[in-house]
Design a protein that fits this description.
By secondary structure, the protein is α/β, with parallel strands linked by helices. It has one domain: P-loop containing nucleotide triphosphate hydrolases (Rossmann fold, 3-Layer(aba) Sandwich). The protein has helices at 51-58, 82-85, 101-112, 117-125, 141-153, 171-186, 198-204, 222-226, 231-238, and strands at residues 4-13, 25-35, 39-44, 66-71, 86-89, 159-163, 190-195, 207-212, 215-221. The strands form two sheets. It has a six-stranded mixed β-sheet with strand order 5-6-7-3-8-9, with helices on both faces. A three-stranded antiparallel β-sheet has the order 2-1-4, covered by helices on one side. Bound molecules: adenosine-5'-triphosphate (ATP). Adenosine-5'-triphosphate (ATP) binds at residues 13, 25, 27, 45, 47-53, 196. Residues 13, 25, 27, 45, 47-53, 196 line the site of adenosine-5'-triphosphate.
Length: 243
């Protein structure tokens, strides 16, 4: 079963009401790809390629200009239990500065209808138990990343969508993330991770969907796409040398 299906997805921003028509930006352009369960899929492309806009359309946060994005055959808004189906980390700023990690998670557990006991479980899953008592304002970027991930995991979702999850992580954190995502995939979960750092993504993913200027460049198993070279070499060859 193809859990995430993106079909001819397109997003044009603008033009501004009084601006010239040329100010319209085509962020995503006739994009079609699948994300399958049991694998970590890297959603790759340079800055401004349209990765975040695509993830936001999959999550129903941005309305497509045309095309569809579905999860288990349904648009996100039509899923019966959205937070129990999809866990997403899109930005890193959703914390009240004075709230502790544990209280932040308790609040989101309550909002999602999950038992309080789930808070300790997700703290443990992401390795954040030791700083659960600390206020969000004092957390490092890597600690915030883990807390975001813990929040996304509250509903034990089958699908994980993570936008640049290795941003701000130290090498130890990146190694941990790699192991964590791998374990999720082994359990049959569907994992889509965006990144513009190809060397890092290469270590972390089984499949890739590469986009540029909002359009699909290629998708497939990383071994097939790279054909024994590095992902960076394959990417440069596929995009005519423009990274
Ligand atoms: N709300 C918006 N209004 C206008 N343009 C936007 C908006 N959101 C994104 N864009 C534009 O759409 C294009 C794609 O942006 P997007 O953030 O999806 O790229 P990205 O691949 O996630 O980039 P990065 O790796 O830098 O995060 C860019 O040209 C961006 O400026």
């Amino acid at each position: 079963m193809q859990v995430i299906q993106v079909r001819q997805l397109r997003k044009v921003f603008g033009p501004a009401v009084f601006g010239p028509a040329s100010s319209a930006i085509t962020a995503v352009d006739e994009l079609t790809f699948d994300v399958v369960p049991g694998a970590v899929t890297g959603f790759l492309g340079p800055n401004g390629a349209g990765k975040t806009t695509t993830l936001r359309m999959i999550l129903g946060l941005v309305a497509p200009t045309s095309g569809t994005a579905t999860i288990n055959g349904k648009r996100y808004a039509d899923l019966p239990h959205p937070s129990g189906t999809v866990g997403a980390v899109l930005d890193r700023s959703g914390f009240h500065p004075a709230r502790t990690c544990r209280d932040h998670l308790r609040l989101y557990a309550r909002l999602g209808g999950y038992p309080d006991a789930r808070v300790a479980e997700v703290l443990d899953l992401v390795g954040a138990t030791s700083y659960a008592h600390r206020q969000a304002r004092g957390l490092s970027t890597g600690m915030r990343q883990r807390l975001n991930l813990a929040t996304a995991l509250l509903g034990d979702p089958d699908v994980l969508l993570l936008d640049e999850p290795s941003n701000g992580l130290d090498p130890e954190g990146i190694a941990w993330l790699r192991g964590f995502l791998r374990a999720m995939a082994v359990k049959g979960r569907t994992v889509l991770v965006s990144s513009h750092v190809l060397s890092e993504a290469e270590q972390m993913v089984d499949r890739v969907v590469i986009i540029r200027n909002g359009r699909l460049v290629t998708e497939g198993l990383i071994a097939d796409v790279t054909d024994r070279g590095s992902l960076e070499q394959a990417y440069l060859a596929l995009t005519g040398g423009a990274a």
